[in-house]
Amino acid sequence: MCALVKTTFLFRCYGHLKNQNVTDILTSLSGLLVSGEGHILDIKQSITHDFLTVSILFTSMNKSNGLGVKLETMAQSLSMKSDLEQVAEEALDNIHGDGSARYVVTVLSRYVSMEHLHQVLVLSQERHLKVDSIRQLATLPDAQQAVQKRSAIEIVLIGKGNVESLHRDFLSLSSELNIDIAFQLETPFRRAHRLVCFDMDSTLIATEVIDELAAAAGVGEQVAEITESAMRGEIDFTESFHKRMGLLKGLDESVLESIAEQLPIMEGAERLFTALNALGYKTAILSGGFMYFAQHLQKKLGIDYIHANELEVVEGKVTGRVTGRVVDGQRKAELLERIAQDHGIPLSQVVAVGDGANDLPMLSKAGLGVAFRAKPLVREKAKYTLSTLGLDGLLYMLGIED
């Protein structure tokens, strides 16, 4: 009696869909593998426009039962092409594991060109990283959406190397190409973030509230100059904060409501929070701005927690002081850690987003710290940047597709 020998095969089926149901195709295919005593090692299916590709790597204990002919016949009945090849055992190292790590490169821009993709692949090749998969995360916009166009491509790479060095290489390339490239080690936690903390001014809103208050008080130029210097990291945030506050003394309280009603929400913020809230993420504002305006955003966007500075108002006038501890960079990092601890969330599953130098402590504390449309100093020090898209570009960095 002839002994059964386990043999490994790679089967590919591909072609244009002609009103076929993909589930029906996969069901028929899996049924044939069951009859052939097939054991699946790897399987991938994708549709580009209307072109279906299915690849299955499997083992079979009996090569002579006509499985190959049956698979080919099935493909032909669907007007699709197919091929079946035997795979040598020594070629299965990547399936069984050779100590290589998996990395995810997310390429973001209003338009990711073929040149952009080519340069990312060239760098991957130079660093001896193999492409495992590529997929488009953003749906292509129609003509009416052209202004809000988003493009996002996710590339999964396999290889060995120093993560910090690879991260720097891809970050450098993103600067050269003027696009955003996020290089992350693929771990179980990458898609399991549970808390997202945001700065407010110039992050959730497209303005600096203190500058709006200053303009109403007639001291706009002086305050704006101090704000810019602080955001660039040229002067201490707390010192600059007290200087700016002093210039607001005597401002009428009614101005606060007027400004709050007209706050320009940052591009992509509403879409981002709709998704985060639906997915059950905890969210927080950690701001060096003011609680009055943070409360306004909390109601509008459905944010769980807010921490900001409390303006002191006496007899309807701003005194130029705040009550309680100033929320500076260090305080933001402490609050992020405290909220995470209260919910039993490890820092590796926390995301932080901000634009200024005072956001760097919380960006470095979070597992995914993103400098959003940030000043040069902040972009240089942050591990991740998002500059070409709106806030909803963060969804693609989390591996969430449209």
UniProtKB/TrEMBL annotation:
InterPro entries assigned: HAD-like_SerB, HAD-like_sf, HAD_sf, PSP
Originating species: Marinibactrum halimedae
Pfam families: Hydrolase (PF00702)
Pathway, per record: Amino-acid biosynthesis; L-serine biosynthesis; L-serine from 3-phospho-D-glycerate: step 3/3
Official protein name in the record: Phosphoserine phosphatase
GO biological process, alphabetically ordered: L-serine biosynthetic process
Entry's Gene Ontology molecular function annotations: L-phosphoserine phosphatase activity; magnesium ion binding
Keyword Hydrolase: yes
Record-annotated active site: 199 (nucleophile), 201 (proton donor)
Superkingdom of the organism of origin: Bacteria
EC number per UniProt: 3.1.3.3
Catalytic activity: O-phospho-L-serine + H2O = L-serine + phosphate; O-phospho-D-serine + H2O = D-serine + phosphate
Homology family: Belongs to the HAD-like hydrolase superfamily. SerB family.
Gene3D superfamilies: HAD superfamily/HAD-like (3.40.50.1000)
Position of the signal peptide: none
GO cellular component, one term: cytoplasm
Required cofactor names: Mg(2+)
Record key words, sorted: Amino-acid biosynthesis, Hydrolase, Magnesium, Metal-binding, Serine biosynthesis
